[in-house]
Amino acid sequence: MSSGIEGGEGNQLDLPREIAGLKLKLEELDAKLGEVGKLAVDLRSEVSKLAAGLEGLQKEVSKLSESFGHVVEDIARSTLPSILLAKMGISIGSLARAFFTVDGRVVELDIYGVGERLSDKSRVEILGEAKARIHGEDVRLFHEKALRLLDSKVLDGNPVLVMYGLYAHPSAIEEASRRGVALITPYIEVVKATKQG
Q1: Cα–chain-centroid distance for residue 82?
Q2: 178 vs 102: CA distance, rounded Å
Q3: φ, ψ at 31 (rounded to 5°)
Q4: Coil vs helix vs strand at 104
Q5: Residue 78 and residue 166: Cα distance in Å, rounded?
Q6: Which helix H or strand E contains 64, and what residues bound it?
Q7: What domains can you pick out in the chain, each with its CATH number?
Q8: pLDDT (tens digit, 0 to 9) for every residue of the chain, 197 residues total?
Q9: CA gap 56, 51 in Å, rounded
Q10: Labelling 55: which of 15, 108, 114, 150 has CA 20 to 30 A away?
């Protein structure tokens, strides 16, 4: 029996040599940890660049979306007079964007114009909104905006509520029908206005 500490093969453990080996391994680990730290700094820098690029891309997409929205509004204002005449018997010279003040706040309409219902020669006011894609929530929000205008008495004609879009989701068709909003796409009149306001 030996009183010393034995190594793996029956040799006595050389503590100074083992400590030196551990120090060497610790230095190697420290060097690798330094490399990992540098990589983390580089990664953080790249992530920051990526985040800045993504923010720039979001701004550009937002600008593009806004521009596209204006194109849809322009299409609506140029095509709706003939659609309103053919489908609803309403004669209107032109449509424009309009701003009204209600309770100190500005309310914007994408589509506004004054015309005449040919069947009874009554004056009508077209209140409308244009969106590329129309969903039920869009119809609800537009209808509520129109009701604020009508309740404020800033309008004096018989209102016709119209939404124009390139696509109408089934929820929009249902909501428009329920609320009496004329819902029109480029190809068909989806829902006729059945009630005013």
Answers
A1: 30
A2: 25
A3: -65, -45
A4: coil
A5: 14
A6: helix 15-88
A7: 70-191 (3.40.1350)
A8: 444 455 555 456 788 888 888 888 888 888 888 888 888 888 888 888 888 888 887 877 777 777 767 788 899 999 999 999 998 999 998 999 999 998 899 999 999 999 999 999 999 999 999 999 999 999 999 999 999 998 888 888 789 999 999 999 999 999 999 999 999 988 766 666 654 44
A9: 9
A10: 108
